[in-house]
Automatic annotation (TrEMBL):
Residues 25-46 are annotated as: Disordered. Belongs to the IPP isomerase type 1 family. Residues 31-46 have a biased composition (Low complexity). Its EC number is 5.3.3.2. It comes from the Eukaryota. Catalyzes the 1,3-allylic rearrangement of the homoallylic substrate isopentenyl (IPP) to its highly electrophilic allylic isomer, dimethylallyl diphosphate (DMAPP). One of its GO terms (biological process) is chlorophyll biosynthetic process. The lineage of its organism: Eukaryota, Viridiplantae, Streptophyta, Embryophyta, Tracheophyta. This is isopentenyl-diphosphate Delta-isomerase. One of its GO terms (cellular component) is cytosol. One of its GO terms (molecular function) is isopentenyl-diphosphate delta-isomerase activity. InterPro entries: IsopentenylPP_isomerase_typ1, NUDIX_hydrolase-like_dom_sf, NUDIX_hydrolase_dom. Keywords: Chlorophyll biosynthesis, Isomerase, Isoprene biosynthesis.
Length: 307
């Protein structure tokens, strides 16, 4: 899907934010990210309710609203060696903060949400999703994360793993519509899969998991992760900033990957969230995928706390 050529002026936002030391934090110039220039989801979706719009706007003045975090801005020089694309996403993307019952409590930068220091000190928990895309032969599409990813570079994982952002279209709770909208957006961003190949109404939310996983001494994950399944034959054009490699696997090929990862062969590693899903759910859900009974496996009432 080509990007629309839209002329958008650069914005410069100056906003004083009181801090405990009576200092002021300033936001620097900002350019809309690539994904915000794309067309909206191609499948008709439910418009956000008036209540949601009101809550969204009123939350901008809440204590958890952070235009720029002092920690993030203060560490900017330290992370000067970070890949430019990943750095931009770290500071521009605003993740949705939730409590352990998946209630929205605020938002913060992707940078802050993945700092283990802040995760541990403030118990920051953010909403995420993991897409499991099968083709018509019921093979699962896997990706290897790019070497420039800040967390878990070069590990193999499920089709797409990312976050809904703090925007109206991705905050819609009804039938996990906000998360499904985000999944469609990121499948295009990461794998070049056109929106029309993955209509939002074709994603089946099967469950939610809550987990925490350090990546290295500085970065990690603490996510409430929505597990989305979809069966579609799609066109894939991976974005090298996000994805190093892709492959479709059947059950036996996935089991061989698991064996190699467990044995440490060839340095092969799997993402911790993918391994949790594999060990707890994937193969029994795969049965439902092949039988066409995937809806029977869905349980969106339970939040599985996994370690």
């Amino acid at each position: 899907m080509p990007l629309a050529r839209i002329s958008i002026p650069r914005l410069f936002l100056l906003k004083s934010v009181p801090t405990s030391s009576s200092t002021t934090r300033l936001c620097s110039s900002w350019t809309p990210p690539r994904s915000q220039l794309l067309s909206p989801p191609t499948t008709t979706t439910t418009a956000p309710s008036l209540a949601l719009r009101t809550a969204f706007l009123s939350s901008l003045s809440s204590p958890r609203h952070r235009l720029c975090s002092s920690t993030a801005m203060g560490d900017a020089a330290v992370d000067a060696g970070m890949d430019e694309v990943q750095r931009r996403l770290m500071f521009e993307d605003e993740c949705i903060l939730v409590d352990e019952n998946d209630r929205v409590v605020g938002h913060d930068t992707k940078y802050n949400c993945h700092l283990m220091e802040k995760i541990e000190a403030e118990n920051l928990l953010h909403r995420a999703f993991s897409v499991f895309l099968f083709n018509s032969k019921y093979e699962l599409l896997l990706q290897q994360r790019s070497a420039t990813k800040v967390t878990f570079p070069l590990v193999w994982t499920n089709t797409c793993c990312s976050h809904p952002l703090y925007r109206e279209s991705e905050l819609i709770d009804q039938n996990a519509l906000g998360v499904r909208n985000a999944a469609q957006r990121k499948l295009l961003d990461e794998l070049g899969i056109p929106a029309e190949d993955v209509p939002v109404d074709q994603f089946t939310p099967l469950g939610r998991i809550l987990y925490k996983a350090p990546s290295d001494g500085k970065w990690g994950e603490h996510e409430l992760d929505y597990l989305l399944f979809i069966v579609r034959d799609v066109n894939v054009h991976p974005n090298p900033d996000e994805v190093a490699d892709i492959k479709y696997v059947n059950r036996e090929e996935l089991k061989e990957l698991l064996r190699k990862a467990d044995a440490g062969e060839g340095g092969l590693k799997l993402s911790p969230w993918f391994r949790l899903v594999v060990d707890n759910f994937l193969f029994k859900w795969w049965d439902h995928v092949e039988k066409g009974t995937i809806q029977e496996a869905a349980d969106m009432k339970t939040i599985h706390k996994l370690t």
